[in-house]
């Protein structure tokens, strides 16, 4: 696809498309990554257990993954813009419902079910898949890196603002403000009208079922799926429980908020670097290195003394690796199975990420309630990092010949 084709389909320069996608991803990620800050004040205010709160957020992660293939299918058929705008409305409803819930069952409905679908519709996979389809191949890796960096910028900017709002105005008022901010994704999604144009080539008219069947028969698909499962374990465990872990180590609450913010700040550079390396290196080797580095880093942090400095150093280094898995994973999906049904295929891979996210979020709360510490979760995180590094070694980095259609 040429730059002129982009202009004719989107009526906007590629830079504007990328900027709007980055802004949408920034809001979507920043808002959802703030929920861990509410664990301590909400459980204290309502006398809830940590595992009860964690289950609601874990259910959100799980529903996000389960519904991602469906929202990806809708985006592939009708364009990402409508799906993202609908998700933004659900975002606002879900966060407002969380703020007004006075019991765990109602909180679980809004935080788990409503927000799960909202994050799927207006989340990074839908945004990045739409942007990838609208850009030429030589810009995709860099654009995905920019979109992922935008997500991290949202984490860096929104999480500390949410922490300040909680301290200054209370957790309920902070949530209501976040619900209003979610609606800003609607105007940002307007340029992302990526409904596929009619095509003449028979190979480009492959059905979604045929594309999925082709991917499911490929061992490389399942390597990416289970590797992304591990990424979800790490991301959700740290997002939901790192502030509580820091507080349990005797450090102030603001250190936990600063840790999440630091991860977001350094992942801006990590995502941009990953996007550039995706253009130049084998994506397979890049993923092996990222997961191996995560395991080494978590092992070092587990053995180190927990101080404000050590927490911030760990957060900065983890930030470089945080979402750097996304550009090579998206690039491998596009390269191996094409872009026509990219949101659908990547949606299935992302389901693996969210299954891991459910595991990391809920298991972290369960381990803490049962043992009074997170030590077992750190060991689990190290072991699955080694698994992910190994499982990416056989991943194929290029398409197999597709039989000609009659």
SSE arrangement, N to C? HHHHHHHHHHHHHHHHHH
Give the biggest beta sheet.
none
Q: Stretches where pLDDT falls below 50 for ≥5 residues?
A: 1-11, 197-203
Helix share, percent? over 70%
What count of helical segments does DSSP give? 18
Radius of gyration: 20 Å
Secondary structural class: mainly alpha
Mean pLDDT, to the nearest integer, reads 82
Alpha-carbon distance between the termini? Answer: 25 Å
Q: Please tell me what the overall shape is.
A: globular
Q: Hey, roughly how much beta strand do the residues contain?
A: under 5%
The count of DSSP E runs of length 2 or more, i.e. the number of strands, is 0
Description:
With 406 residues, the protein is an all-alpha fold. 80% of the residues lie in helices and 0% in strands. The chain contains 18 helices and no strands. Helix 4 (50-78) runs antiparallel to helix 17. The chain is globular and about 55 Å long. The relative contact order is 0.16.
What is the structure about, briefly put?
With 406 residues, the protein is mainly alpha-helical. The protein has 18 helices and no strands.
Compile the SSE list and pairings.
Layout: H1 3-10, H2 14-32, H3 39-46, H4 50-78, H5 80-100, H6 104-122, H7 124-134, H8 137-169, H9 171-182, H10 185-189, H11 208-216, H12 219-248, H13 253-280, H14 283-303, H15 308-321, H16 326-337, H17 342-371, H18 375-391
């Amino acid at each position: 696809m040429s730059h002129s084709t982009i202009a004719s389909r989107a009526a906007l320069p590629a830079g504007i498309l990328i900027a709007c996608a980055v802004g949408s991803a920034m809001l979507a990620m920043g808002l959802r990554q703030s929920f861990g800050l509410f664990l301590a004040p909400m459980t204290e205010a309502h006398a809830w257990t940590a595992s009860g709160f964690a289950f609601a957020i874990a259910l959100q992660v799980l529903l996000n993954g389960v519904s991602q293939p469906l929202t990806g299918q809708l985006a592939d058929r009708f364009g990402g813009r409508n799906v993202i705008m609908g998700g933004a409305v659900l975002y606002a409803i879900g966060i407002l419902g969380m703020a007004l819930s006075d019991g765990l069952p109602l909180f679980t409905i809004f935080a788990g079910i409503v927000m799960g679908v909202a994050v799927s519709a207006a989340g990074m996979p839908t945004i990045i898949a739409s942007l990838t389809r609208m850009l030429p191949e030589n810009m995709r890796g860099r654009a995905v890196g920019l979109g992922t960096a935008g997500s991290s910028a949202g984490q860096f900017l929104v999480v500390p603002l949410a922490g300040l709002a909680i301290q200054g105005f209370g957790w309920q008022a902070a949530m209501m403000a976040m619900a209003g901010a979610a609606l800003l994704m609607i105007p940002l999604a307007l340029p992302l009208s990526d409904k596929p144009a009619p095509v003449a080539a028979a190979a480009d008219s492959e059905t979604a079922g045929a594309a999925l069947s082709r991917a499911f028969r490929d061992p490389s698909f399942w390597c990416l799926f289970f590797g992304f499962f591990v990424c979800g374990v790490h991301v959700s465990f740290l997002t939901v429980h790192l502030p509580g872990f820091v507080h349990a180590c005797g450090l102030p609450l603001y250190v936990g908020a600063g840790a999440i913010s630091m991860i977001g700040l350094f992942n801006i550079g990590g995502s941009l670097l990953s996007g550039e390396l995706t253009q130049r290196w084998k994506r397979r080797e890049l993923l092996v290195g990222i997961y191996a580095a995560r395991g080494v880093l978590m092992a070092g942090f587990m053995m180190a003394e927990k101080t404000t400095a050590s927490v911030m150093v760990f957060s900065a280094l983890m930030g470089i690796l945080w979402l750097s898995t996304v550009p090579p994973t998206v690039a491998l999906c596009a390269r191996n199975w094409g872009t026509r049904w990219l949101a659908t295929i990547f949606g299935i891979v992302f389901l693996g990420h969210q299954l891991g996210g459910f595991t990391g979020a809920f298991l972290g709360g369960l381990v803490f309630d049962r043992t009074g510490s997170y030590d077992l979760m750190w060991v689990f995180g190290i072991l699955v990092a080694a698994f992910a590094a190994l499982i990416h070694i056989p991943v194929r980095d290029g398409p197999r010949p597709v039989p000609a259609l009659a």
